[in-house]
Amino acid sequence: MKRRILSALLVMVMVAMLAGGATASAADKPFELVIGGVTSMNAKDAVTKFIELVEEYSGGTIVCKDFPDNQLGNDEQRWEMTQTGECDISIGSTSSVASSYNDFFIFDTPYLFLSRDEAFDVGFGSEAGQAIIAGVEELGLKGLALWENGFRNVTTNNKEVNSLADLKGLKLRTMDNAIHLAAWKAMGANPTPMAFSEVFTALQQGTVDGQENPYGIIVGNKFEEVEKFAIETRHSFTPYYVVMNLDRWNDLTPEQQEAVTKAMAEATQFEKEQSAKYEQEDVGVIEAAGCKVIKLSDDALAEFKAAADSADCATMAMEKMAHPELGQGLLDALAAARG
Question: Distance from CA of residue 319 to its chain's centroid?
């Protein structure tokens, strides 16, 4: 009898040891984050930097799998995948998902930001800017940062644009975004919404006269190979959102959350620096492809801005926002910084 009891106790001890070993093994396994990203080199470089830093700062307890170049789908698809947990962290254009998160609409206002420093220091860094990205928690997301997608510029395949008058009637591919459409109509163009995946072929075949995007997107998708002119209208500074699934964020330990926050802050500064660097390099790539880069005069830029302002896009954006006071707060912060 005693032997049977002893044997049973030994079996129980062994099961407990095995269970404990399994628990320890699971606890020792690094926390893996799947990241879905874009085609722009500045953003891809920043993701690589973040991955290196977060592994270092977390002591190796966080590792990442990177899927750049829209491998996990377009901006809207990655946004939704991050909400459902199929993707842990995603990067994409705020314009692409503004219909899902309305407070991003303010960033579609033409000539909202007049310089890179103003966008980061005043726009993204202001109390209103921080509240806008933090507000994604309402949708099951954790706002990690706003990055630079870059100033949007026009490219054309058949017309040199040196003034607002030259834009008249130009069939320009844009996103299906009411604010963008209103601005381009006010500037005299014929805006034509089209899926991004169709743009290269449409430019190549002359279905549209041109398109507008940041240089990083233009070069990343080789639009310079089928366009003749690149016009530096710098009409919109579009941010990238960087968001994380909120449940996955909450699964992190406080120390791991601190590591993610620290790594993201440094990656964000790095992304800004890379954006400035690549913007200059992209101009060289565009010119080398035989596409003429046109730098508009100050008077011409003032014409473009005045025409865009006439559409009152800021008011239109705030009418679409869930929290329009944040849009007004952003405008007030910019006005105060400009004196």
Answer: 23
Residue ranges of alpha helices (H) inside 103-194 are: 116-117, 127-134, 178-186
Label residue 20 by pLDDT band (50, 70, 90). very low
pLDDT in tens, 154-199: 999 999 999 999 999 999 999 888 999 999 999 999 999 999 999 9
CA distances to 70, 107, 234, 266, 320 from 312, in Å: 33, 14, 18, 36, 13
Q: Give the model confidence (pLDDT) of 327-336 as tens digits.
A: 999 999 999 9
Strands 229-245 and 141-156: antiparallel
Neighbours of 159 (CB within 10 A): 15
CB 35 within 8 A of CB 67: yes
Query: pTM of the prediction?
Result: 0.86
Q: What is the pLDDT of residues 97-125, one digit of tens each?
A: 999 999 999 999 999 999 999 999 999 99
Residues in the chain: 339
Domains by residue range for the chain, with CATH: 31-338 (3.40.190.170)
Q: How far apart are CA 312 and CA 235, in angstroms?
A: 14
92, β-bridge pairs = 241
Residue 328, judged by CB atoms within 10 A of its CB (0-12, 13-18, 19+), counts as middle
